[in-house]
Amino acid sequence: MPLNANTRKRSIRIAITLASGLLPVLLGGVILSMQAERTLQQSTQQTAEEAIRQFELMLDNNAQAARELLPLAGQTCIDVNLALREQATRRPFVRSTNLVWDDTIYCSSLFGDYQEKIASGDYAGGRLLLMKGNPVTPNTAVLVYRLGEGLRGAMSTLDGYHLINALRMIGRHTLLALQVGPHWLTSDGEFHEGPLPVFPVAQTKIDSSRFAFGVQAGFPEGETWRYMSSQYPPLFSLLIFFGVISGLIGHILQKRSSSPTHEMKRALDAAEFVPYFQAVVHGDSKKISGIEVLMRWNHPKEGLVRPDLFIPFAEHSGLIVPMTRSLMQQTATLLAPLSTSFEEPFHIGVNITANHCQDLDLVQDCREFLAAFAPGSIYLVLELTERELIEPTAITHQLFEQLHDLGVKIAIDDFGTGHSSLGYLRQFNVDYLKIDQSFVAMIGIDTLSSHILDSIMELAAKLDLAMVAEGVETLAQSDYLTAHNVNFLQGYLYGRPMPGAEFISALSDH
Ligand code: C2E
Ligand code: CA
Ligand code: CA
Question: What keywords does the record list, in alphabetical order (predicted)?
Answer without folding.
Answer: c-di-GMP, Cell membrane, Hydrolase, Membrane, Transmembrane, Transmembrane helix
